[in-house]
Amino acid sequence: MSDKPQIPTEIIQGKVHLIRKEKVLLDRDLAEMYGVQTKQLKRAVRRNSDRFPEDFMFELSDQEFENLRSQIGTSSWGGTRYAPMAFTEQGVAIFQRIEQQAGGGGKYSNHACVCKNAEMVRKLCGTSRQNRRP
Question: pLDDT averaged over consecutive 10-residue blocks of the chain (134 residues)?
Answer without folding.
Answer: 61 84 91 87 92 93 86 61 88 85 56 53 55 40
